[in-house]
Amino acid sequence: MQLHFHTDDPSIQESVQSFVRQWNNLDDFFEVKTSGSTGAPKSIHILKEHARSSARMTGSFLGLYAGQNALLCLSPDTIAGKMMIIRALEWDLNLHVARPSANPFEHVTGTMHFVAMVPYQVQRTIEQSPEAFHENMHLIIGGGPISDALEAKIQELPCKAYHTFGMTETISHIALRNITKKSNRFRLLNGVSANIEDGRLQIIAPHLGVNNLMTNDCVEFFGRREFEWRGRLDFVVNSGGIKIHPEEVERQIAPLFETNFFVIGIPDPELGERLILCLESEPFAIERKTLDPLLPKYHVPCKVYFYPEFVYTKSDKINRLGTLASKDKHEESLL
C-alpha cells in the first residue's frame, strides 16, 4: 500500500499512520468505538483475522486489485475509516487520504477506483464535482438511509454504486444493495447467513466472529440471500396500538425538505407515544395538508421541533435521542 495525503491536517495524517503501525504490530486485535447513534458509544475489540476476512470479502465482491486508487474521506478514527485502510493494505491499493468534508473531491485530483462515502458527501459531490464519478469507480455508501431523490441522482452516475448494510459489531457491511441496478434489496455477501428471530434480524458470519448476532433491525426476506430493510425496532413508535417505522415516514416526506430532519416518538398520556418531526432549521411554516397526501392515516407527526443544529455522533450520524434531549430548540408548532 502506498499512502497519498491530500490534507495538511497533522491529526488526520497521524491517525492514519498510527493505525497502520497498530495493524502491523504483534497484537491480534484493535479497538474501536461504536457510533453511538442508537445508544451510548462503547469500545469493542476486533480481531485482525476477522477484519482481514471482511476486507477480502468486500474486495472479492467488487473485484479490487493491486495498484488501484482508493479514497479515504471518512474519519480514520471510525470503523468505516479503519476498514478502508485495511482494505488498501490487504489488496495493495494506493490509499489517498482526504479531510472528511462535504465534498472530498474538492481537494483530490486523479482517478479513484474505490470510494466509501456517506449520503451527504455523495449529494454535495454530485452538485459540485460530478466529474469525480466515472465508469471504473466502485462507490459504497453507508452511514444512513438514502433518500429517493438522492438515489435517483446516483442512478444517473456512470459509476457502480452500492448501499451498505452493517454495523460495528459485524466489523463492516455484510450485505450490499445495488443502487445502479435500481434494486431495493440487500444481498448477503459470501459466507454470511441471516434469518428473522423474534421479529429481529439475526446475523451469522463465523469468519467475522459473528455468531447469532441479534440486531434491532426489522427486515423482510426474499429467498435466503436477499432482504429489504424496514427500520429499527428500537425506533418503532407505538401510537395508540399503531406501530410506525420512523424511517419509512422519513423516506416518504423527504422530498419536502432540503435540510436534515428525522421523526421520533415522544411519550403521550393517551396514546402511549406520539410522532413528532424534528428539523435542523430556522422555524418556517409547515401545513398539515402538505404531509397528509404522502402518509398513511395516523402517521402524520403531531408537532414540529426546530433546532439550530442537531447533535451528531463522531461518525456524523444524527443522534436522535441526544438531539431530542437538547434544550437548544427554537420552538414547537402543532400540525
Task: Please render the helix and strand layout as text.
Layout: E1 2-5, H1 10-24, E2 29-33, E3 43-47, H2 48-62, E4 69-72, H3 79-91, E5 94-97, E6 114-117, H4 119-128, E7 138-141, H5 148-154, E8 160-166, E9 173-178, E10 186-188, E11 193-197, E12 200-205, E13 210-214, E14 217-222, E15 226-232, E16 237-239, E17 242-244, H6 246-253, E18 261-268, E19 272-280, H7 288-291, E20 303-307, H8 320-325, E21 332-334
Parallel strand pairs: 1-5, 4-5, 4-6, 6-7, 7-8, 19-20
Antiparallel strand pairs: 2-3, 8-9, 9-10, 10-15, 11-12, 12-13, 14-15, 16-17, 18-19, 20-21
What structural category arises from helix and sheet content?
alpha/beta
Kindly report the average pLDDT value. 92
Top CATH class of the largest domain: Alpha Beta
Radius of gyration: 20 Å
Order of strands, widest sheet = 1-5-4-6-7-8-9-10-15-14
Main sheet?
10 strands, mixed
Query: Between the first and last Cα atoms, what is the distance in angstroms?
Result: 55 Å
* Range of helix content: 10-25%
The number of helical elements comes to 8
Q: How would you spell out the order of helices and strands?
A: EHEEHEHEEHEHEEEEEEEEEEHEEHEHE
How many domains? The number is: 2
CATH superfamily of the largest domain: ANL, N-terminal domain
Apparent shape = globular
CATH fold group of the largest domain:
Rossmann fold
Task: Give the number of DSSP strands.
Answer: 21
Low-pLDDT parts are none
CATH architectural name of the largest domain: 3-Layer(aba) Sandwich
